[in-house]
Amino acid sequence: MKNFALLLPLALVWSVLRIAPGPPQAPVESSPLNTVLKKMDTAAAAFRSTQAEFEWDTYEKVINEIDEYQTGTIYYRRVGKEIEMMADVKWAGSDLKKLKPEPKFVLFSKGKVRMYQPKTDQITEFDLGKNRADLQSYVVLGFGGSGQDLVKTFDVTYLGPDTINGIATAKLQLVPKSDKVRNTYKQILLWIDLDRGISVQQQAFEPDGNYRLAKYSGIRINEKIADDVFKLKTTSKTQTISPSG
């Protein structure tokens, strides 16, 4: 599962596919948190598509450093009542200044997660079945997900204002309501753009001290994305494997 580990929304999902969101949280009074959640609600209602450049970092506590960086482009779009997502990983390595071409594509569409690695010409496919709706709620975490949905699954705390790459954001702490999820991620931090109501940075902390950091830049909202972007460019010899767990 390491191949998905830095795709933060998906990484959150694998441990919770069989866990339904908890009951809605009681409405909160007017507060900075409520203001941010309302901005997320507004952004979610208008959401059609998003694309952004990303940097995904994996920190390993045992060596006290980031042991892998990945960079590329991520795409989201709404298709009917569902969300499709494509992550196009272009570069990877242990030194951010010396990344090497490491193409990899991760597609979430029609109830399946499919990862294609051109170097091995192989697709790893996960059929989510009845759990597709639950997965989608995590895939859109910070990108097309509403504030109302957020408080159904997490205890949300407003940690104050912060600036990320010149962007004024609100920093939110998310603690999973599910004990099972907390065994994988004890907390998640989101930095929400105060103007656009979307996430520009996400950080997930594991109980053992490891964390995964996702940084987004060049975010473009509700622009037309070609259908071809959401297709895996396979060959006639591509093999598909479907792990059982």
CATH superfamily: Lipoprotein localisation LolA/LolB/LppX
User: In CATH terms, what is the architecture?
Assistant: Clam
Number of domains: 1
Biggest sheet layout: 12 strands, mixed
Order of secondary-structure elements: HHEEEEEEHHEEHEEEE
Low-confidence runs = 1-28
Mean of pLDDT: 84
Strand content: 35-45%
Ends distance:
10 Å
Write down the CATH class: Mainly Beta
Fold and architecture overview:
The protein has helices at about 10-15, 30-45, 130-140, 145-155, 180; strands at about 50-60, 65-80, 80-95, 100-110, 110-115, 120-125, 155-165, 165-175, 185-195, 200-205, 210-220, 240. The longest helix is centred in the first third of the chain and has 15 residues, at about 30-45. It has a twelve-stranded mixed sheet with strand order 7-8-9-10-11-1-2-3-4-5-6-12. The protein has a single domain, classed as Clam (outer membrane lipoprotein receptor (LolB), chain A), CATH 2.50.20. The chain has about 240 residues and is α+β, with helices and mostly antiparallel strands.
Short summary:
This protein is α+β, with helices and mostly antiparallel strands. It has five helices and twelve strands.
Ordered list of secondary-structure elements with their pairings:
Blueprint: H1 8-13, H2 32-46, E1 49-60, E2 65-79, E3 82-93, E4 100-109, E5 112-117, E6 122-127, H3 132-139, H4 147-153, E7 154-164, E8 167-176, H5 179-182, E9 187-193, E10 199-205, E11 211-221, E12 239-241
Parallel strand pairs: 6-12
Antiparallel strand pairs: 1-2, 1-11, 2-3, 3-4, 4-5, 5-6, 7-8, 8-9, 9-10, 10-11
